[in-house]
Design goal:
β10, α17 and β11 form a beta-alpha-beta unit. α1 crosses α6 and α16 crosses α17. This protein is an alpha/beta fold. It is built from 19 helices and twelve strands. It is elongated and about 75 Å long. The strands form two sheets. The chain has a seven-stranded parallel sheet with strand order 8-9-7-6-10-11-12, with helices on both faces. The chain folds into three domains: 136 residues, Rossmann fold (3-Layer(aba) Sandwich), CATH 3.40.50; 218 residues, 3-Layer(aba) Sandwich (Rossmann fold), CATH 3.40.50; 61 residues, no CATH class. Pfam families: SIR2_2, TIR_2. It comes from Blautia segnis. InterPro entries: DHS-like_NAD/FAD-binding_dom, TIR_dom, Toll_tir_struct_dom_sf. This is TIR domain-containing protein.
């Protein structure tokens, strides 16, 4: 049989030993070193994949960090030829869902790989008696099993006081807090609201301005800061909480009115019998909704948004790494990362307090990311640095999975998970945003 072994270059010894053993059994194993100088590398790989009978993927931490190895795997998973896929998972590597949907072999040590692979390939001669071998599993059952396993690991991190919750805008989506674009639109509309002399056709609208400047909304933030000057922070604060305050105008804020997301975050933050709880919260949001929810339940906490702030060991630290703008009080220097120059300043300063907090947390704790899209270049850079430094510390991100109605949907889902894996993140898929609080509550139990 013709066999293609996909592996990370860091696992060359594993590949060599397995390939030698397969060749001794009479199989033909593709070897990249056989590609001559001047030949089309990609075309040779494609032809080798197409002509192979079996594709073996050696799944290690190195493999999940290798873009090239994962690209080879993607071409097989989404391919149309009849190549049989045999993933071999080595050690305690968590199996991504795009791999787990296939029957895979799991071994504890590198030494077990050869005997396991030879055993499975021998079964191919009697494949009718082994119909499940090399076949796909039911994806729903795979994801359910994966979810339970990940929840157990996150529970263990919480009990050990090593779990950090990392929050993006998605955690505030049900609390009447505007999205980034909505906030910009609302502030821009106020800035241009005095332009009464223009007729309707010539009047500037914030929506049209945003559509004409898709390259970066941070650019608009820079100009708003220039135009509003000393009123900038107050204006942002006003529009940040405008709908939230209108909603609660005639209703006192109490625990019964909290969203399911805030209730779940409260439960994660609540000290357990053994005194364990979240180690910290990192948020990219300006608002103080989490603080308000924790206060309602008498959970001791402290907001950190600038360098030099101290806190006691009994207080749960909430790090506002993009600045802090509480609802009912004014603070000096909220340090908002709202405009392009503020973002660039944070990006280029490796010793900024916010970068150091994130790097240290990503390198030492288990982090659960909620309400983020992984599109922030600075966050991606910090995750990549911490993952390169310590590949023993894996993190998790909860993401809504779009319905897999087309090949494009499948590719997008797989590429996102591969990208997350390369940054040290395991993906927890859910079918709807409303499922996220229930996942958090399972971890908190």
């Amino acid at each position: 049989m013709k066999i293609f072994i996909s592996h990370s270059s860091k696992d060359e010894d594993i590949y060599t030993n397995l390939a030698d053993s397969l060749r001794k059994q009479g199989h033909t194993v593709f070897n990249a070193i056989d590609i001559n100088i001047g030949e089309n590398w990609i075309e040779k790989i494609k032809n080798a994949l197409y002509e192979s009978d079996i594709f073996i993927a050696i799944i290690t931490e190195n493999f999940l960090s290798s873009s090239w190895a994962q690209a080879e795997l993607s071409s097989v998973v989404l391919g149309t030829n009849n190549i049989r896929l045999l993933p071999v998972v080595v050690g305690d590597v968590f199996v991504p869902s795009f791999i787990a949907q296939f029957q895979y072999r799991k071994v504890k040590t590198e030494e077990e790989i050869i005997s396991a692979v030879l055993t499975d390939i021998a079964k191919l001669s009697n494949i009718e008696d082994n119909p499940s071998l090399f076949q796909k599993k039911g994806i729903a059952q795979v994801e359910e099993n994966n979810l339970e396993e990940k929840i157990d690991l996150l529970k263990a991190a919480l009990i050990d006081n090593q779990l950090t919750l990392v929050c993006g805008a998605g955690v505030s989506r049900d609390s009447s807090i505007p999205t980034w674009n909505e906030l910009l639109v609302n502030i821009l509309n106020e800035v241009y609201s005095n332009d009464h002399d223009l007729n309707t056709e010539n009047k500037v609208t914030a929506e049209s301005l945003l559509s004409l400047m898709p390259q970066s909304n941070l650019i608009l933030g820079k100009y708003l800061k220039i135009i509003l000057k000393d009123d900038f922070n107050k204006t942002v604060q006003k529009h940040l909480y405008l709908y939230y305050n209108q909603f609660y105008e005639f209703e006192p804020i109490n625990p019964n009115l909290e969203t399911n997301m805030m209730k779940a975050i409260v439960e994660l933050s609540r000290p357990k019998r053994r005194g364990k709880r979240l180690e910290s919260i990192i948020t990219f949001n300006f608002d103080d909704l989490i603080e308000g929810a924790l206060s309602n339940h008498n959970i001791e906490h402290i907001s950190i948004w600038k360098e030099g702030q101290a806190y006691g060991i009994d207080a749960l630290p909430i790090f506002h790494v993009h600045g802090f703008l509480p609802n009912k009080r004014d603070i000096i220097k909220p340090n908002l990362v709202f405009s392009e120059e503020a973002y660039h300043s944070q990006f280029i300063d490796p010793y900024s307090w916010s970068n150091l907090i994130q790097l240290n947390t990503f390198s030492t704790n288990v982090c659960l990311f909620v309400g983020l899209s992984l599109s922030d270049p600075n966050l991606r850079r910090l995750l990549d640095i911490s993952w390169r430094r310590n590949q023993r510390c894996k993190h998790y991100i909860i993401m809504k999975k779009s319905p897999q109605k087309s090949r494009t949907d499948e590719i997008a889902t797989m590429l996102f998970e591969q990208d997350a894996n390369s940054l040290g993140l395991n993906v927890i898929w859910c079918s709807d945003y409303s499922d996220i609080p229930s996942i958090l509550l399972k971890i908190a139990k």
